[in-house]
Design brief:
Blueprint: H1 6-15, E1 21-24, H2 30-41, E2 46-50, E3 61-62, H3 65-75, E4 78-79, E5 84-92, E6 95-102, E7 111-112, E8 115-120, E9 123-126, H4 129-143, H5 160-172, H6 184-190, H7 202-208, H8 211-217, E10 222-228, E11 237-244, H9 247-261, E12 264-267, E13 276-279, H10 283-296, E14 306-310, E15 314-320, H11 329-332, H12 343-352, H13 361-371, E16 378-382, E17 386-392, H14 407-418, E18 422-423, H15 424-431, H16 435-447, E19 451-454, E20 461-464
Parallel strand pairs: 1-2, 10-14
Antiparallel strand pairs: 2-6, 3-6, 4-7, 5-6, 7-8, 8-9, 10-11, 12-13, 14-15, 15-17, 16-17, 18-20, 19-20
Length: 468
């Protein structure tokens, strides 16, 4: 392990615990420490230091041969291993610090005593078996991604105009080097869409395949849209389509469908003869959601499709696959690193100028909707494995959701529909009632599935849940 000095460890202790650092007073806490070792191995690694007081004071402990044997015995129960190394750092006299350096494990999930753990912030939590299997899928995916595997299609099955347009846009944006040729194979090679032996990758097929070539071989390259005449997806449909096509074709079709069904508010500003049209939901926000679905869905789920359900009160955009790499809905609402499930596909969409690469797309989508004064987009999962983004249509009344509520609880819900994303303190100030009663009302709404919070403690933001 890299040599850590006493000064280094004192500086770590002063900084407090984090996702990559944990302190224990002594090896009497070895079992809890080993849970953290497994949790760090399932993330990005870190260090566990024995001999640091919870206050951050570096005190050390006596380290005998038996102490080392006991620690090693417990670390052997972290499997599959090894993913750690042990070091000793003198403090004073016979007192030393024991430092366990943990590597990010290549064979996740890692378990201690048969249980899988994950380090999130400064907390180590146990994973359910389903979450552990999901972590295994993430690990396998990083080693062998579907999008990188060879396709049965050939260059003759691709939309050449779309390829050339992508390269031209990339050159114009400074994201693609000018190839100096229109040869399709050279363009695909420059976009890294050919395997080492010159075959098309799956990514090339779903990005640029013609619909007639995709239909028999890539049934997952499908978009299903429907306008439901009611509040549920079991209501009659007024408009319904299914299309098979490449990502760019499906993106354009989704955009057209949404614009066809969005209500448009027309306004003639004072002192102007130019009419201003304002769609009920910002189109750019919905485009971002569609692009996220197309870029990040699990294309290995060949029988699943991206769906758009347009209802009287909301619009739902669902894509096959769940959140990966430790992302949660709460994490999405704040600053987060971009870790795409399909980095090759995402890179080409970035080169085309359609998406960004720094994890800001979701936040821009949320900001656009909130600036329009609408309910914050809600993210959730649908069984068995779908990621869902829900936009609330303006003018939707929450009265249908108020059965069994007191006047006070209804007042809080009305406020959340009018001003989604409020913090507790802002709700208390607006309602003008004691904080404890507002907290009780919010707990009731959350328990009944009428409101949810994003974030933790006093910084959490509250919004209504619009799906009945």
């Amino acid at each position: 392990m890299a040599v850590l000095t006493l000064d280094d460890l004192r500086a770590l202790a002063a900084g407090g615990e984090s996702e990559n650092v944990e302190f224990k007073l002594s090896t009497a806490e070895v079992e809890r420490a080993c849970r953290t070792v497994a949790g760090m191995a399932n993330q990005s690694g870190g260090v566990v230091v024995f001999g640091v007081h919870p206050s951050g004071e570096v005190v050390g402990q006596e380290v005998s041969e038996r102490t080392l044997e006991k620690l090693a015995e417990h670390l052997r129960r972290v499997s599959p291993g090894p993913i750690h190394s042990i070091g000793k750092v003198p403090v004073s006299g016979d007192l030393q610090l024991l430092v366990v350096k943990v590597d990010a494990g290549p064979l996740r999930p890692y378990r201690y005593n048969g249980r899988a753990y994950l380090r999130t912030g400064a907390v180590t939590g146990e994973l359910t078996e389903e979450q552990a299997q999901h972590l295994l899928l993430d690990t396998q995916h990083q080693g062998r991604r579907w999008e990188e595997e060879p396709s049965e299609l050939g260059v003759e099955h691709l939309d050449v105009d779309e390829i050339q347009r992508t390269v031209r846009d990339g050159v114009r944006l400074g994201r693609v080097r000018d190839p100096g040729t229109d040869d399709v194979s050279d363009l695909l090679r420059g976009l890294d869409l050919l395997t080492n032996d010159g075959r098309l990758k799956h990514a090339a097929a779903v990005l640029f395949g013609r619909s007639d070539a995709l239909a028999p071989r890539y049934i997952q390259s499908q978009l299903k849209v429907a306008r439901f005449l009611g509040l549920k997806t079991t209501a009659p449909m007024g408009d319904e389509h299914q299309w098979v096509g490449n990502i760019f074709d499906l993106y354009r079709r989704a955009d057209r469908f949404l614009l066809d069904h969005l209500r448009i508010a027309a306004e003639l500003p004072k002192d102007s003869w130019v009419r201003v049209d304002t769609p009920e939901i910002p189109p750019n926000a919905m485009r971002e959601a569609v692009l996220n679905a197309l870029a990040h869905r699990d294309y290995s789920m060949w029988s699943a499709s991206i769906t758009i359900a347009f209802l009287d009160d909301r619009v739902e955009i669902a894509s096959p696959g769940l959140l990966h790499f430790g992302l949660t809905p709460e994490v999405l609402y704040g600053p987060h690193q971009s870790r795409p499930w399909n980095p090759t596909i995402a890179r080409v969409l970035h080169q085309r100028g359609l998406i960004e690469t720094w994890g800001t797309g979701f936040n821009r989508m949320v900001d656009e909707v909130r600036q329009a004064g609408l309910v914050m987009p809600l993210v959730s999962t649908l069984p068995p494995s779908n990621f869902l983004v829900t936009f609330t249509r303006p003018g939707f009344t929450p009265r249908a959701f108020k059965a069994g509520m007191t006047d006070e609880q209804s007042e809080v819900l009305d406020l959340l529909f009018a001003r989604p994303g409020l913090r507790m303190g802002e709700i208390v100030e607006s309602i003008g009632r004691p904080r404890r009663t507002v907290a009780r009302d919010l707990a009731f709404l959350n328990e009944r599935g009428r409101a949810q919070s994003v974030g933790q403690t006093s910084a959490a933001r509250w919004s209504p849940i619009v799906d009945p």
